[in-house]
Amino acid sequence: MWRMDRPEVQRSGAPGWVRTAVLAVPPLVLAAAGVTHPMELTRATAHHWLVVHVALVPVFPLLAVAVWVLLARDDGVLAWLARGSAFVYAAFYGALDAVNGVAAGVLVAQTPVGEAADPTAALRPVLRIGNQLGWVGSSAFLVAVLLTVTVLLRRPGRRPWLGAVVVVAASVSFLDSHVYWPRGVVTMVLLAAGLVLLEPTRARQPGWSGPVRPVDVRSFQRPISR
User: Where exactly are the transmembrane stretches of this chain (predicted)?
Assistant: First the structure.
């Protein structure tokens, strides 16, 4: 008689190109949007301002997803603190986009001509709150990046120093650059490059066995001992 033992199969996760796209595409989309982002909110730019920020509502939170992708197989305290900081970024920076981007854009765009010489004057308290929310969000993103880099640098194998330096520098610039041209655009491009440079270290993490290969089940057949 023969007995069939079911072999254990270890999942390899998403393909490498998918992870790379998740890391690189969001900041590159933000960089592209930043090229046309109005430098200030006025009646003349209000419609464009509104369209850009509505389009970016689902994009800004995706920067937080990069942290989760890079730390997909890490369960330590630092890794979870990084994930938590990334969540704080997504929540608070999303609030900045909603307040200073969408809400302010709608109000200025709908202000009748001649009603106010400077339609943004009445919005300054709101814009100030939005900026404060954005600062909390960008600061949380910097903390998340610093924690993520620390975790990655502590892994065995080649240390991703270049990616670490680039992504930290971009995150520091992001504190007050938003996506405005030119600094904000350069910041997002550097962030995309830094995240991609960090990604290859995930494949060398202990416990990662590479892509799943077909298994010859006959090799797991053995006679039952009497």
Answer: 21-39, 51-71, 78-96, 133-153, 160-175, 181-198
Task: Give dist(CA 174, CA 191) in Å, integer.
Answer: 9
Q: What is the helix (H) or strand (E) element at residue 144, kind and residue range?
A: helix 124-153
What b/e string do you get for 148-171 counting C-beta neighbours within 10 Å, with b at 16 or more? bbebbeebeeeebeebbebbbebb
pLDDT at 223 over 70: no
DSSP secondary structure string for all residues of 100-123? IIIIHHHHHHTSPTTT-S-TTGGG
Q: Are 1 and 223 in contact (CB under 8 A)?
A: yes
Among 92, 111, 133, residue whose Cα is nearest residue 50: 111
- Return the amino acid letter for 200: P
Give, for 52, the enclosing helix (H) or strand (E).
Answer: helix 46-56
Average pLDDT over residues 78-83: 97
What's the pLDDT at 1? 42
Helix (H) or strand (E) holding 34: helix 16-36
Over pLDDT 70: what percentage of the chain?
80
Are 130 and 95 in contact by the 8 Å Cβ rule? The answer is: yes
* Nearest residue to 153 (alpha-carbon basis) of 97, 71, 41: 71
Report pTM: 0.81
Amino acid type, 207: G
